[in-house]
Amino acid sequence: MKSMGSGHILTSKTVTPIECLHYALSLPTSVVITGIDSMQILDQAFQAAKTSGTQDKSQIAAILAKTAPAAADGKYEPFKTTPTFDSTAAHPEWLGYNPQTA
Predict the structure, then answer these.
(1) Distance from C-alpha of 25 to C-alpha of 18, rounded to nearest angstrom
(2) How far apart are CA 9 and CA 70, in angstroms?
(3) Is a pLDDT exceeding 90 seen at residue 97?
(4) Is the dihedral angle over the CA atoms 69, 73, 77, 80 positive or is it negative?
(5) In Å, how far are 4, 23, 97, 102 from 34, measured between CA atoms?
(6) Are 55 and 24 in contact (CB under 8 A)?
(7) Whether 68 contacts 9, CB under 8 Å
């Protein structure tokens, strides 16, 4: 799980990186991808891991409630709403479709 959606949700200013990580870590996921590109971000990931599990259901619900308006129109989820992150859209031949022979 990419807990911050390549950083797009953070641009909405509705949730913090730690909240994103806490939410992702509260789910039954196998892997939470944190996108570590600096020591500061590594320390943030360690902090989230240390404090993960201290949130109760109401705190997780509060994270979801405050991000719901930002998530409603898909603006901060281009990986779901645009072909930008969809390699298959750029390569239909992977699905057996060849537009040159259609």
Answers:
(1) 10
(2) 8
(3) no
(4) positive
(5) 8, 12, 35, 42
(6) no
(7) no
Dump pLDDT digits (tens) for 37-67.
Answer: 899 999 999 999 999 988 899 999 999 999 9
Distance CA 1, CA 79 (A): 12
Query: Is residue 2 classed as helix, strand or coil in its secondary structure?
Result: strand
SS3 state at 62: helix
Q: How far is CA 80 from CA 8, 83, 90, in A?
A: 12, 8, 15
Token pair of 17, please?
């990186």
Residue 9 has pLDDT above 80, yes or no: yes
Tokens 């911050």, residue located: 4
